[in-house]
From TrEMBL:
Lineage: superkingdom: Bacteria
Protein name: 3,5-diaminohexanoate dehydrogenase
KW Oxidoreductase (keyword) present: yes
InterPro entries membership: GroES-like_sf, KDD_N, NAD(P)-bd_dom_sf
Keywords, comma-separated and alphabetical: Oxidoreductase
Residue stretches making up the L-erythro-3,5-diaminohexanoate dehydrogenase N-terminal domain: 12-158
EC number from the UniProt entry: 1.4.1.11
UniProt source species: uncultured Nocardioidaceae bacterium
Pfam family, one: KDD_N
GO molecular function: L-erythro-3,5-diaminohexanoate dehydrogenase activity
Length: 356
């Protein structure tokens, strides 16, 4: 145990460049010895975020061996999993193996946990060469260790769900929680962008059949949306989403084509959306999200593929009076809320289980 004082946000683990937070660092200190408020977790599985995995898959033409080698190289070089192209990482599941005497996280040795902070700021060492991973899926069996800081967040794994299912849900648990908060604000004021109403807002979720998208749809309905619309890229996903029964309408459109996306949304919601939630893992969806949202509406961006300059400048160029929010992945109680949606919505659970 290291006795000199650390920092609750992990500044003491930053090696390069000096003076930045761990997420912005290019290299972290991964020594296994703990500062007093840290916790070390024995890693069992990583969950790469969708944008990062898709970028690696495209960059290496779907060659799993090359994708695996790329992930190993990133972790070895940076001391964390942070895709240099997307800037994103993911999260992990593991078992607590040592807890510093000043750790505020409330964890004990032997607890099985999912980290609710990004791998982009988590010191990480891989010790098995990812031998159990074929490089073809977002979930990565792994053996190694990770370090949690005093202000990190971790949740104990629920006993009623398979670890890989719980990890998949917790990876995107910020999306439904923030969606519910925004929809509840509209519903509680008794108004939408069209003015006073006894109905809740119209919510459009772009990428509605994905993990974060399906949870966002379920959350919007539970929070009081009057109408929910799921946007998917092709008919096969439309059929999956329709069978899940969590959207009032499902439309097919390429989210990268702004006009096609707007036209598709208007078929299901002629007045467009009060709240648009972007959950796709490809770049170029900003303009379509703006065009699909009414003046006075709100857009929530949950995709790490989003260009926030394109979103802001695009809205300005379209003279669109919309509020744009960055989903930062943290809302108090987000993990429990997402897991409760999974348990209560068989359609959501079926979509998640199909992806495992």
């Amino acid at each position: 145990m290291l006795e000199r004082p650390g920092d609750p946000v992990g500044l003491h683990r930053v090696l390069d460049p000096a003076g930045v937070l761990p997420q912005a660092a290019t290299r972290l200190d991964t020594r296994r010895e703990l500062w007093p408020d840290e916790t070390r977790v024995r890693v069992e599985r990583l969950n790469l975020d969708a944008a990062s995995f898709r970028q690696l898959e495209r960059a290496y033409d779907g060659d799993g061996d090359r994708v695996r080698a790329a992930v190993l190289a990133i972790v070895a070089e940076r001391g964390k999993m942070q895709n240099p192209e997307t800037g994103s990482g993911g999260m992990l599941v593991g078992t607590v193996e040592e807890v510093g005497p000043e750790s505020p996280l409330g964890l004990q040795v032997g607890d099985r946990v999912a980290t609710l902070v990004s791998l982009t700021l988590t010191p990480l060492v891989i010790e098995d060469g990812l031998a159990g991973w074929d490089g073809r899926s977002e979930q990565v069996p792994a053996d190694g260790y990770a370090i949690l800081f005093g202000r990190s967040i971790a949740a104990k794994l629920p006993e009623d769900l398979a670890p890989e299912l719980a990890l998949s849900v917790m990876d995107v648990c910020g999306a439904p929680a923030l969606t519910a908060r925004i929809v509840e604000q509209y519903a509680s004021t008794g108004s939408t962008t069209e003015g006073p109403t006894t109905e809740g807002p119209t919510v459009v979720v772009i990428g509605g059949a994905g993990k974060s998208g399906s949870l966002a749809l379920a959350a919007a309905r539970a929070a009081g949306a009057s109408s929910t619309v799921g946007v998917v890229p092709h008919r096969a996903e439309a059929e999956l989403l329709e069978s899940a029964g969590i959207a009032d309408a499902v439309v097919v459109a390429d989210a990268r084509d702004p006009v096609a996306l707007k036209d598709a949304v208007e078929k299901a919601a002629p007045d467009r959306a009060d709240v648009t939630v972007v959950c796709v893992d490809v770049p170029g969806c900003e303009g379509g999200a703006v065009l699909s949202t009414r003046d006075g509406g709100t857009i929530i961006f949950f995709s790490m593929a989003t260009s926030f300059s394109a979103a802001a400048l695009g809205a300005e160029g379209l003279a669109a009076d919309v509020t744009m929010l960055v989903g930062n992945g943290y809302v108090p109680g987000h993990a429990d809320y997402a897991l409760s949606l999974l348990r209560s919505e068989p359609g959501v659970r079926s979509l998640f289980e199909r992806r495992l």
